[in-house]
What we know:
Apea-like HEPN domain-containing protein, mainly alpha, 2 domains
Amino acid sequence: MEEETMTQQASITDRLNKVINHIAHDGTINISDCKYDEIRNFMYLWNLFEKEFFKSGSKYQLPNALKQNNLSIDQIVIDETFKHFQDRYQDTIKLKKLRLSPENEKQVYDTLTKVYISADERRQTIITIIYRYRCNLFHGSKEIASLWNQEDNFIHANQFMLACLEAKLNIN
């Protein structure tokens, strides 16, 4: 029975690869490739992150998602994630591609370009960007062929969400 399930799974993966490559007109995409692992992990992590930090899944709870939990999140993860986003999104063209609301775009840009940034501002900016990854992944342009280009973004987003979940659940 277990062998049959694994064969079915391989068959689904192979068939899915064919569908993706047909739609993307690419022919080189292989979702079994490890570069797609971070995208899959993002989907799982966002689901868990949303469950633990957003009551009823409301985006309007973004500003307080971590603050109200008073978590001790690994500062190295926060610093590395913020630095990655700072390096990437000080370029206003890339920031525009996130498709933030005008209010959030100003808040994110202002925070990314400040000299002194509070811990709350860093966390808020990180969550806002990660939330946009989620929105763009599920509601965006559907350019699956270019998702692997976002691997570094998903790695940093995943590390941050995982650190938050571990802190909340007391998992060391």
